[in-house]
Amino acid sequence: MALDLNAGDYKIFRDAFKRFLQAEIIPNYPRWEKEGIIPREVWHKAGDNGFLCPWVEEEFGGAGAGFEYSVIITEELARAGTHVMFPLHSDIVVPYIHSYGTPEQKQKWLPGCVSGDIIAAVAMTEPDTGSDLAAIRTTAVRDGDEYVINGAKTFISSGILADLVIVACKTDPGANPPHRGMSLIVVERDTPGFLRGRKLDKMGLQSQDTSELIFTDCRVPAGNILGRENAGFTCLMEKLQQERLVCSVMAQGVAERMLQYTVEYCRDRKIFGRPVASFQHNSFKIVEMATEIELGRTFLYQLVEKHLAGERVVKEVSMAKWWITEMVNRVAYHCLQLHGGYGFCDEYPISRDFRDVRIFNIFAGTTEVMKSIIAKELGL
User: Fold this and answer.
1) Band of the pLDDT at 1, cuts 50, 70, 90?
2) N or C: which end of the chain has fewer CB within 10 A?
3) Residue 147 within any structural domain of the chain
4) Sign of the torsion angle spanned by Cα atoms 89, 92, 97, 98
5) Does residue 3 register a pLDDT over 90?
6) 192: exposed, middle or buried (C-beta count within 10 Å: 0-12, 13-18, 19+)?
7) Rounded to the nearest 5 degrees, what angle is found at the Cα of 82, between the Cα atoms of 162 and 324?
8) What integer is the mean pLDDT of 188-211?
9) 79-125 pLDDT per residue, tens
10) Which pLDDT does position 374 carry in this prediction?
11) Which strand (E) or helix (H) includes residue 259?
12) Which cofactors must be present for this protein to function (predicted)?
């Protein structure tokens, strides 16, 4: 039986989150876009309503729900055109703590992640290192009961707001191959030697704080390491399937949003005395987009079901990540074109959506990296 996230308890949860969006996020989002950051109280309200890490067990403050509830949250945020980074926190970063943390680490950090008292980020990318994680230069040297971290990270989502950052470090710089010398170490807010760099000015996603992070003789307890020393690369690889699935869900939701309001615009807007949608070229373009979006949703939900069942679908998720994120950019291009000059004006949502989706086929692994992974999976 196909997964139906619009029935039963799923529908109740979806409707509740939609009400939360209407009350707390949608009316304020334009202001947050101008301010360049999401207020912390929004995270607390989301936590109070059970919308952060809903899959975390009750003993840590969560609801013990499945990943499918996270899919619903990600979909509705995207369909509303509001890129608040709840999915990054809940479904990309916090799972590292849940999967690799000790019982003490889980008890220390998970309740705050669920309540919104702790905002989490992951720091992998460096100024000279993007997709090639094995080439990172940030080091963590063991000194007694501490690690001393030195290095810099960039393009870190939630870098300004984050209370807890999972940092990919080299703990064995001489390892061969290099990826075998990488570890994941948790750095908490206000740790001496941990500084926030610039908040980066970006083409889109203006309200999502993206920044540089700097570590200068930053001392953290040795007990802050996640998993085994020098096993960080393996941890990262194990979590990329879900990360890329979340990104695909986000892209799919925005594509559906853009098509919906573009169809409405093309029905109402007239040119040469006729609705824009009545011209065959335009109607065919809309039909092509609708078909691609439907194909994307069908494929995506198949992968969500397989992921929920614990299957390894790295190849298929990589296919979804590159194809759906490229598709949403095609949809953005054609939807803006169908809006004509109004599409270039910020008073119409397509203007912002066009800018926002450009990052989708870059973050969490570029299209080119996805194709390389698929080629490897195919034995090429």
Assistant:
1) low
2) N
3) yes
4) positive
5) no
6) exposed
7) 100
8) 94
9) 999 999 999 999 999 999 999 999 999 999 999 999 999 999 999 99
10) 97
11) helix 232-268
12) FAD
Catalytic pick from 33, 76, 212, 243? 243
Residue whose structure tokens are 């949003």: 257
Q: Measured between alpha carbons, how far is 226 from 169 in angstroms, rounded to an integer?
A: 11
Residues 260 and 254: their CA atoms lie apart, in Å, by 10
> What is the CA 178 to chain-centroid distance, rounded?
27
* Helices within 123-231 (DSSP H only): none
Contacts with 103 (C-beta within 8 Å, 6 or more apart), sequence order: none
- The tokens 């680490």 sit on which residue? 105
Nearest to 241 by CA among 323, 293, 306: 306
Q: Is residue 3 part of a domain?
A: no
Q: Does residue 264 carry a catalytic annotation?
A: no
pLDDT at 128: 83
| The token pair that represents 301 in the structure block | 């939900």
Whether residues 169 and 242 share a domain: the answer is no
223 and 240 housed in the same domain: no
Helix, strand, or coil (residue 196): strand
Residues 74 and 248: their CA atoms lie apart, in Å, by: 10
Using alpha carbons, select from 173, 135, 161, 172 the residue that is nearest to residue 213. Answer: 161
Beta-ladder partners of 140: 149
